[in-house]
Design brief:
It is globular and about 40 Å long. Strands 2-1-3-7-8-9-10 form a seven-stranded mixed beta sheet, sandwiched between helices. A three-stranded antiparallel beta sheet has the order 4-5-6. The chain contains seven helices and ten strands. The protein has one domain: Rossmann fold. With 200 residues, it is an alpha/beta fold. 35% of the residues lie in helices and 22% in strands. Helix 1 (25-33) crosses helix 5 (140-155) and helix 6 (160-170) packs across helix 7 (172-178).
């Protein structure tokens, strides 16, 4: 039986209230139960925790993990881990050359609301085959529904332009309302921004 593709997921704190149970783990579990992808999942609230787990990508055992999924609050060019915030420059340094042949997916609001040239540089320095994310604030339920579809497409290994075109055609309402972006070192595809949305 063919080996299933794998997702390497690092998730930040969604709330300072420890009684809240929001997590992307059920999405990963669903993909596993459907036989689409396996995954590892770790929580990160500090830069040190992020760096520790990202360094694991250097280990041969994780060579088959072709999607690096960063699930956390965000802002333009930023990820909010919980205790700490990390900007795109620092994240680029941490991920440099560790994402060759992989897709980096920002499951976060607004992180990819940047100039196209900056997103292309991030893909080039990290070695990522593609960088995927959003230019808008996104609602939890809306983004969770879309992420099942998006992660399935990403682990299937389609080209970045085909990935964007397929999602925009088949799930255009989601793609536009979330401000979907797919960037590579040579090109950036994104949907026009529209007014809308609940915050993430």
């Amino acid at each position: 039986m063919a080996k299933r593709p794998s997702i390497f997921c690092l998730e930040g704190e969604w709330s300072s209230n420890l009684m809240q149970r929001m997590s992307v783990e059920p999405i990963l579990d669903l993909l596993d139960h459907l036989g689409l992808a396996t995954s590892v999942h770790r929580d990160v609230a500090t830069v040190e925790e992020l760096e520790y787990y990202v360094a694991k990508l250097d280990e041969k055992r994780y060579d088959d993990f072709k999607v690096v999924y960063l699930a956390m609050h965000g802002d333009s060019g930023l990820l909010k881990l919980g205790k700490d915030t990390v900007d795109l420059d620092d994240l680029q340094r941490v991920l440099a050359k560790r994402c060759v042949g992989r897709i980096v997916y920002f499951g976060s609001c607004l992180t990819m609301k940047m100039q196209k040239a900056r997103l292309q540089e991030f893909a080039r320095v990290t070695g990522a085959r593609a960088v995927v994310g959003y230019r808008k604030e996104v609602g939890w339920l809306e983004s969770a529904a879309f992420e099942v579809l998006l992660l399935d497409r990403m682990v299937s290994g389609v080209r970045s332009d085909a990935l964007f075109n397929r999602l925009s055609t088949e799930h255009g309402k989601f793609a536009k309302s979330l401000g979907l972006v797919v960037a590579t070192r040579s090109q950036v595809h994104w949907t026009p921004l529209r007014e809308s949305s609940r915050g993430a």
